Fold these 2 entries.
Entry 1:
Amino acid sequence: MMSVVGAQPFIKPMQTPTSISPGIQRRHTLPASEVRPLNTQDAISVFEIEREAFISVSGECPLHLDEVRHFLTLCPDLSMGWFEEGRLVAFIIGSLHLDCLSLPQEALTLHKPCGSTVHIHVLAVHRTFRQQGKGPILMWRYLQYLRCFPSVRRAVLMCEDFLIPFYRKSGFKVLGRCAITVGNLTFTEMWYPIRGHAYIRRNSEAIRFPQHPLTLPITKTDERVDV
Ligand SMILES: CC(C)(COP(=O)(O)OP(=O)(O)OC[C@H]1O[C@@H](n2cnc3c(N)ncnc32)[C@H](O)[C@@H]1OP(=O)(O)O)[C@@H](O)C(=O)NCCC(=O)NCCS
């Protein structure tokens, strides 16, 4: 698997515990907001969101529970979860695959550590937290985070056509029709260039997780930072 030593410092809790005065017993409170990579222990929470977001709608979902566990075992550093008081409210799961013109079927299940394209399998926001801008914020952070991986050149995803405008707002461009179908569902492929090595060139606030996600406005300049 690719080295992410340089990338890891950027994934850290958005709120760190305050210092504890001597003599005052530690209170085990959960951080109000936290963004961190997912692990296999988060798989059930991930799947619960997917169940509501996808299975209840179309009977299908991007990743079944065993596939969630599979990717969170193989490449947890390509996932990102947003937690509010310990509860998963939004997440992204990605894996690497080799460059090619169109997403191959195997991209749905495989992780190719030597690949330079991140396949974003799924972005989903818990139902009660939608329409608050969390999806675009998490996506923006994820795309900035990917710049810390020296070999990553692009991110690709497949989405149903009604979500094309949504991903366009995050800077994705349409690649074309996706050869993959799932049941009756058809998809469009979209991509986003990753201009990498941000952690080498600068240590800017643009790629550091700030104290609170909502303190970070998404602007045109933020969406694409030239390096
Ligand atoms: C799509 C999703 C990630 C958006 O996250 P969010 O945090 O709610 O995003 P926002 O707060 O910006 O607001 C919702 C936006 O999502 C898009 N959207 C969500 N559902 C949509 C739908 N059924 N049709 C069209 N656009 C939709 C719209 O752009 C909408 O913005 P608008 O209300 O101004 O039109 C979220 O709705 C979700 O998790 N949906 C279920 C899972 C899913 O479809 N994931 C994408 C798989 S490729």
Entry 2:
Amino acid sequence: MKFVVKAWSNGKARAGVLQLGSCPHPIETPALLLTTRKGLPVFIPPDHFPSLPSPDSLLFHVSPLHFLEGISLKAISNIGGLHPLLGLRDHILVAVPRDSIISIPDHDSTNRIGASFETPSGRMLIKPAEYMEMISSMRPNLWTTLADEVPAWASEKRNKASVERTLRWLDECIISNSKDGAVFGSIVGGSRVEVRQSCAQEVSRRNVEGFWIGGFGLGESMEERNPLLSAVMDSLPEEKPRLISGLGLPEEVLQGVAAGIDLFDSTYIYHLTLGGFALTFPLERIVTQITKYQPNSDSGSDGTKINLKATMYRKDTSPIVDNCKCYTCQNHTKAYINHLFNVHEMLAHILLEIHNTHHYLGFFCSIREAIQEGKFEQFRQKFVGSRREHLFSAALSI
Ligand SMILES: [Zn+2]
């Protein structure tokens, strides 16, 4: 694996290029990992993959735990790993055990995330040796070590135990690594700055090619997150890439980029699509051009997205976004997608996820351009300020 930082902006935001040995396509960072279930995106059929922006859409997050049941590891290994199994020769498969779709803890479940996972056969604890057997059979391009994540409200004792366990698992994973893909060491530490810092320092001393930052998006506020992210980032070497799970909203992505994150594993698009939402914020030249919000209580809009289930789109013969190059906007109208939702056709989700994926990958492209131009902070302030203005206008219109 090769990773080179090409440009910096406003201190810590950085744009780089990631090249994985077995993949012919270099990936520009900051980049988004597309969410999958059982190895493939939830709603987008494989024959539509070529219509997505390439190579940006080639990064897939895969949870090895999605293959715990059904097909055996031996069968996956005999087929040649996940790439031939899924029919994805050129894609970059990033194995992260965390399943952000279901790993949303409640206050009674402090101990119910980490390396213990729900399966149709009940709760299963995965140990490093078993996990490494999965990695060895699946042969992803990049994988993260096992982590015992805790939510923000975990006790100090539980938090320290999670760090000790994660570091122990990290060493066990490294020892049994059979050189299948690049290894990213997992960093945890909950909501304690000093614990986060010491965990990051420990992981950075290990023989890893990059870092996975866990334990975010688990109950902490955006304000609490800043010092925690800084404590981690300041402890890591600049030349190695950083991947984070749990930051998905546009503002959260911008917060992560500002802190120096390179890769994002996010279920934001999946959840948007599930709710019938389509991303509509302007992508081109966000730095200088902000579209004014037109308040409408029926639109379900917050200035960045619209709800296509809303009755106001029943007769709307325009595409989701004018000039959008995605398959959905090139071929279909808001009225048709609204109709598909009304008659409970799954094609509604398929068309919507194609657009949302296209649009959010475009957002990451705009972020990279802003960094390369040295204007990331202006970009971020304009975007966040515009969204705030829209929310304020919407509140006044109710
Ligand atoms: Zn579109």
